[in-house]
Design brief:
The protein has four domains: about 120 residues, Orthogonal Bundle (434 Repressor (Amino-terminal Domain)); about 180 residues, 3-Layer(aba) Sandwich (Rossmann fold), CATH 3.40.50; about 60 residues, no CATH class; about 120 residues, Arc Repressor Mutant, subunit A, CATH 1.10.10. It has a six-stranded parallel β-sheet, with helices on both faces. It contains 24 helices and eleven strands. A hairpin with a 5-residue loop joins strand 10 and strand 11. The chain is α/β, with parallel strands linked by helices. The relative contact order is 0.07. The site of magnesium ion has 5 residues, from helix 10. The site of adenosine-5'-triphosphate has 23 residues, from helix 10, helix 15 and helix 17.
């Protein structure tokens, strides 16, 4: 029985089948064999994409009764609930059920199940005992607002589809770690071991492997030093034998800055091997990563049907942002709240920081905060400084032009803006890297892209654009900023400069004619030597 679309997937039913199968201790293939269906059918049930036929469901229930997977004393009730959840067209055959529950367990069925469990089985007793967890320094997330869709997608990939490597990507502060922690708690019961490690202090791969093996197989480390080669094979052995969820937070710490984004830093190449090993080798575990940047080693392995997936986190939706502000006792009209959320592009970290400022300095009122005009400061600036400092010259230049233009542009328009010609491949790569770092986002028209609002304000401020004091008076541009590789110049703003407002000041930083679009400002003077 098929369900028609993704939207209609019945996650609750999928989860139920998965839980029951895990209790029996069978793989999808093992269960499929015993029920006489294809493995794909079991995959679809667990994905909530289809329901079993009545005869298959009865066989599944019979197996479950034999293996005592239903709560003692409440078997009939649980089975009726399962039948109902499976949207069967025929009523449950009550006399059949009573007969089934009255039967003693059959040694033949038990033996067949034991055989079908094979080497890959998840032990029933383990599944019932719950996972062994080492949550290390995982952050505490008291309340996660919104993100239901993202949670469902990740749970689907990790639990139902048994993906081997799942990355959660996005701008600093967008909520990657918060989501990964929440997911870890939600899916922990589907694993035998759960380990969380932050890579913020950049441990060597050797140290990380040792740390994981301390949890997974401490006995093998007792006999003294174990070579790196051996650690890799031991980890893989554990990943095959045991269903492990390994969460590695802040992978970007190990990635190179500048143009080689996505490549591992010298001395950290071992992680590339770890990623490939987890992605390409058959095992029953899952590596969940969070990173501001996408690790290049995974790109060729990703795909909708592959066991390697990546989810890029976009802004938090408006309702969730409002809940976050309300929790921090920040008040304002709906319009002010919307402006504040827009100014910080729905970034929960930025909103948290700003909420604190609003409470401390503006008695929790959004309106007076917005009136003072400056959105990027303090913690928000630090957050963006960190990401900006990692960019190559061309990437910074692209950000500057997007901040100047302040509207979505296509690659062709961007190329036209840059009078110093760049090979189009180079420009495309720079744009792609910026997208991978979540600093730019797609515009409404296909093929166009633009800056997130908080990034726009940040880059504008860096460029020394007009800043306003609290009374709204324009301040002088910051002369300190110099375009990399160019000389500071003077500019004359022509027609349209008034409308361009804060953009005019930025042109002091660019070489003559560097902006040829004529959209808002005409450069009339060459820079001074
Ligand atoms: N959906 C959410 N609901 C409530 N709070 C959230 C949500 N998402 C994130 N936060 C909070 O926002 C802050 C930043 O989130 P988090 O640390 O997860 O960001 P991140 O993307 O991992 O950032 P970084 O790249 O710096 O590691 C944290 O305090 C977190 O608890
Ligand atoms: Mg994080």
């Amino acid at each position: 029985m098929k369900r028609s679309s993704y939207r209609e997937q019945d996650y609750a039913f999928g989860q139920l089948v998965l839980t029951l199968r895990t209790r029996i201790g069978l793989t999808q293939a093992g269960l499929a064999d015993l029920l006489g269906v294809s493995r794909h059918a079991v995959v679809e049930w667990e994905a909530g994409q289809s329901y079993p036929r009545a005869d298959h469901l009865k066989a599944f229930i019979a197996l479950g009764v034999q293996q005592r997977i239903f709560a003692t004393g409440r078997e009939a009730e649980d089975i009726r609930a399962l039948w109902h959840a499976a949207h069967q067209k025929v009523l449950l055959d009550e006399p059949w059920l009573q007969g089934l529950l009255a039967k003693p367990p059959s040694p033949r069925v038990t033996a067949t199940v034991a055989q079908a469990r094979g080497a890959k089985a998840v032990s029933t007793s383990q599944a019932l005992r719950g996972p062994r967890v080492d949550w290390g320094d995982a952050p505490d997330v008291p309340s996660l607002y919104g993100r239901q869709r993202e949670m469902a997608t990740l749970a689907q990939w990790v639990v139902q589809e048994r993906c081997r490597v799942v990355s959660v990507l996005g701008l600093g502060g967008i909520g990657k770690s918060a989501l990964a922690v929440s997911l870890m708690h939600q899916v922990a019961s589907h694993f035998e071991v759960v380990i969380w490690r932050s890579l913020r202090d950049a441990p060597t791969c050797e140290a990380l492997l040792e740390d994981c093996l301390q949890v997974l197989a401490p006995e093998v480390l007792r006999d003294g030093s174990v070579s790196l080669e051996r650690r890799f094979s031991l980890l893989l052995e554990c990943m095959r034998r045991t269903r492990v969820l390994l969460v590695l937070d802040n992978l970007e710490t190990l990635l190179e800055e500048g143009q080689r984004t996505g490549h591992l830093r010298p001395g950290y190449e071992g992680y590339a091997r770890l990623l490939r090993q987890m992605a390409e080798t058959e095992h029953q575990s899952c590596l969940l990563l969070t990173s501001r940047e996408k690790p290049g080693d995974l790109v060729p392995l990703e795909g909708k049907r592959e066991p390697v997936r990546a989810l890029r986190l976009a802004r938090l939706d408006a309702d969730a942002c409002q809940q976050l502000l309300a929790e921090r006792e920040v008040a304002g009209s709906a319009a002010d709240q919307a402006r504040l959320i827009e100014a910080y592009a729905g970034n929960p970290q930025a909103l948290n920081i700003i909420a604190q400022t609003i409470v401390d300095l503006f008695a929790g009122e959004i309106a007076p905060f917005l009136e003072q005009g400056e959105v990027v400061f303090g913690g928000v600036r630090k957050l963006l400084d960190e990401q900006y400092a990692r960019l190559a010259d061309l990437e910074q230049m692209v950000l500057h032009w997007l901040a100047i233009v302040r509207e979505p542009v296509t690659l062709g328009e961007l190329r036209a803006l840059l009078v110093m010609p760049r090979p189009s491949g180079e420009l495309l790569e720079a744009v792609d890297r910026l997208r991978q770092r979540s600093l730019i986002e797609h515009g409404q028209h296909p093929g166009s892209f633009t800056l997130q609002s908080v990034v726009l304000e940040y880059v504008t401020t860096r460029l020394g654009g007009e800043r306003r004091d609290r009374a709204g008076t324009a301040c002088a541009p910051d002369p300190a900023w110099t375009f990399p590789g160019s000389r500071q110049g003077v500019y004359t703003a022509g027609q349209g400069a008034a409308a361009a407002g804060s953009r005019a000041g930025m042109f002091s930083a660019y070489p003559p004619g560097a902006y040829s679009g004529g959209r808002a400002v005409t450069l009339a003077a060459r820079p001074t030597a």
